[in-house]
Design goal:
25% strand; DNA-binding; single chain; six-stranded mixed beta sheet; 260 residues; 24% helix; 12 strands; alpha+beta
Length: 260
DNA sequence: ATGTCGTAACGTTTACGA
């Protein structure tokens, strides 16, 4: 089962590009971030026509996450637990069952956090602490599960073409990296790193300054696997090529193939 | 030339978030 994560930067603007990629890549599941749409306005038809079930958790203008799945989605939950006053749509969960096993899917859009320091950075770190608590619950279940999405964290200098340019940025500050490591070290596998060690692999290139042309990218979209999911991994990749297409998102998909 | 893009709004332009 091919499961992908893709920050599409606006579903209205990306509908055609997303459909073109779906037709090429044929993922079984896609976890979407930054749909920038309320649920009522999400264009479901082009995806349902392609055989996907669609579940959204949107808000007006900003953020918003969704799941597309060729197999039925069960036990859907919206919102990251731990703060009932948090109105930002950044988390959605569902279970999908393969031929053998089931996997719990968590799609996330972690706060950017800039400018740091400041209230937005405080919100990012608080959100990461809530993520850690939900992650601990997933591990305790001892079942296949994954948390995939735009983490807005550059884990190590090797995950940036120009790490010096990001040194003071909320995506790379030591506290951001420590919070990400804290989750990883509980027992998750960074799926892409497990398959592809070494530098030069990115999932985001800024629209500005010719970042794509210069390959000035960063790796901030991640798939974290519980041990039971990691044992099922048959491959992982980044669909880098689509960043060069017409009207691209500034992110590209990262995917994992699980033997479910 | 704050150099790009997407979204919303008292819209033919500005503000915000990224």
């Amino acid at each position: 089962m091919k499961i992908a994560s893709f920050n599409i930067n606006g579903i209205k603007a990306r509908q055609q590009a997303l459909c073109d990629w779906l037709d090429d890549a044929q993922p079984d599941v896609v976890l979407l971030q930054e749909i920038k749409s309320v649920d009522e306005n999400f264009p479901r038809a082009p995806f349902e026509d392609r055989g996907y079930n669609v579940e959204t958790h949107g808000q007006k203008s900003f953020n918003g996450v969704a799941i597309l799945s060729k197999r039925p989605l069960e036990d859907i939950r919206r919102g990251l637990p731990g703060d009932e006053d948090d109105a930002q749509a950044r988390w959605i969960e569902a279970t999908v069952t393969g031929d053998g096993a089931a996997v719990r899917l968590c799609g996330l859009y972690l706060p950017n956090g800039n400018p740091a320091p400041g209230p937005k950075y405080d919100y990012k770190l608080a959100w990461m602490d809530r993520l850690r608590i939900r992650a601990a619950e997933l591990l305790a279940a001892e079942e296949p599960a994954l948390m995939a999405g735009d983490y807005n964290v550059i884990p190590q200098d090797a995950d940036a073409a120009n790490p010096a340019a990001w040194a003071e940025d909320a995506l790379a500050l030591p506290e951001s990296r420590a919070a990400f490591r804290r989750v990883l070290h509980m027992g998750f596998t960074d799926a892409f790193r497990a398959c592809h060690p070494g530098p030069g692999h990115y999932t985001f290139w800024d629209y500005q300054g010719g970042a794509w042309r210069r390959d000035d990218g960063i790796r901030i979209d991640h798939v974290l696997l519980t041990p039971q999911a990691a044992d099922l991994m048959e491959g992982c990749g980044i669909d880098r090529e689509i960043r060069g297409r017409e009207k691209p998102s500034d992110h590209v998909p990262v995917w994992v193939d699980l033997d479910l």
